[in-house]
Amino acid sequence: MKNIISKVILGSFVVSAVGMANAQKIDAKAKKILDDITANYNSKKNSYFKFSFGSGLNGQVTKTEPGIYYAAGDKYKLKIMDTEQIFDGNKIYNINADDMEVTIAKPNGSSALFSPINYLGTYRNDYNVTYNGKKVVNGVNADFIKLTPVKANGIKYVYLFVDSAKKQMVKLEQHGSNKDVAVIAIKEYKENQDLDPNMFVFDKNKYKNYVITEL
């Protein structure tokens, strides 16, 4: 499980964007739903998600772990198991407590984090978007939206399940071309909390015994 988590968070959690090499198709109903959710999240001072992260092969989730995600503007903090990722608006800090390692890097300008809400922005340029009707997910009669890459990027397709009434994401499934699957199922959502001012700050002094690598 540790290897899968590391692979997803430190690797495929930053998904390279692709260009508009082919004609893009976006269903109008799906676009309206996704744009409404994006506007809702963007209108908040900050957002918090408690979720379960599942991974597996051949479309079947075999392992799940709890995770939390905080976001305020373009800053975020993501934690799953012993791995934490912080973006302070400038650099991404990948912190692995088990291996006592920290990797620091500037994000690629055309990259997007695999988070509870990452595809709300990247779909506009990188995916064909179709509305696939309703499906009950975690007790919610959710709208089912499918994203298919315009150009090969290692992802076969992405499923988004949305509570349109609340304008919130319910579940996200990312299916890789190599048959890997990664799933985020949101369990709890909060907004406009009074967060610690240092929530998105990496304090190097807390990791004196860690191997720190800046790329």
TrEMBL record:
Transmembrane segments: none annotated. It comes from the Bacteria. InterPro entries: LolA/LolB/LppX (IPR029046), OM_lipoprot_carrier_LolA-like (IPR004564). Residues 1-23 form the signal peptide. It holds the Pfam family LolA. Keywords: Lipoprotein, Signal. This is Outer membrane lipoprotein carrier protein LolA. It comes from Chryseobacterium flavum.
